[in-house]
Specification:
Strand order of the largest sheet: 1-2-4-3-7-8-9-10
Number of strands: 10
Structural class: alpha/beta
Largest sheet: 8 strands, mixed
CATH topology: Rossmann fold
Low-confidence stretches: none
Order of helices and strands: EEEHEHEEHEHEHEHEH
Number of domains: 1
Mean pLDDT: 91
Radius of gyration: 17 Å
Helix content: 25-40%
CATH class: Alpha Beta
Shape: globular
Distance between the termini: 31 Å
Strand content: 15-25%
Length: 244
């Protein structure tokens, strides 16, 4: 067995009407009777599990971050699951808009299973890249109590997602609790005004400081869309967990 896939779960989701596969990385070594671990919930786990688990294994074995669990969710239909609004107009067939169903899958199905099966604490993190980064922002605004730490890597904000920026502004103005930490990052993005919308998110965070949220933003000039996770994940782990 691949040492970074220590457990493999298949569960049927009533919200998604299909089976979903979860790859679980578990901390190596002995576990104390009262020891509880943080959990990273990783989107697009079919492609990113080994990347994130490798950094977790490397950093935790050196005491840089706590030992932790990584629960990586293999994707099936990313547009359906990660987008809060329907896409497509004119000649394009509409698709997407299932983010709330996927959020219900997390809250009512996956997280309870992980927390029953493994020794976990309440230090939950969600990591999403591209459309997964969009879903990460959606989750922070919809269920700010669900995770402590949010990594939104290159969130794929289209014109249909402008309401998310409006909702962020509303919450920041009221200084409502959001989460503990947000790491927002991207490479240079030329298409569809996505980079401009990410900048609007950053300006909103700057304009309405919220004592309930510590956030960090970075544009990686030396990254492209495919290798950004290799650069941002270790930085985010340091930002979230260093000295915990």
């Amino acid at each position: 067995m691949d040492p970074l896939v220590c457990d493999n779960i298949v569960l049927y989701s009533k919200f998604l009407a299909e089976e979903r596969r979860i790859f679980v990385y578990l901390p190596s070594g002995s576990v104390g009777l009262d020891e509880k671990f943080p959990v990273i919930y990783l989107l697009d786990g079919h492609s990113l599990h080994n990347v994130v688990s490798s950094f977790v294994q490397h950093y935790s074995s050196r005491g840089r971050i706590p030992r932790m669990i990584v629960a990586s969710i293999a994707s099936t239909n990313r547009v359906r699951d990660f987008t809060p609004t329907v896409r497509g107009s004119g000649s394009e067939a509409p698709e997407g808009g299932g983010a709330n169903n996927f959020l219900n899958f997390l809250t009512q199905e996956l997280i309870p299973i992980i927390e029953r099966k493994y020794p976990t604490n309440d230090m939950r993190t969600i990591i999403g890249h591209s459309m997964g980064g969009l879903f990460t922002l959606y989750t922070m605004l919809s269920r700010p109590d669900l995770f402590r730490y949010y990594l939104a890597s290159s969130p794929w904000l289209l014109n249909e997602d402008e309401p998310l920026i409006t909702e962020l502004e509303r919450l920041m103005k009221k200084q409502l609790p959001l989460s503990e930490k947000l790491f927002l990052a991207h490479e240079h993005i030329e298409s569809n005004g996505i980079e401009a919308r990410i900048h609007k998110v950053v300006e909103t965070l700057k304009l309405y400081p919220n004592p309930n949220l510590t956030w960090k933003y970075k544009q990686y000039e030396d990254a492209d869309h495919s290798n950004l996770p290799l650069k941002v994940v270790p930085d985010a782990l340091d930002f979230f967990y260093r000295n915990k």
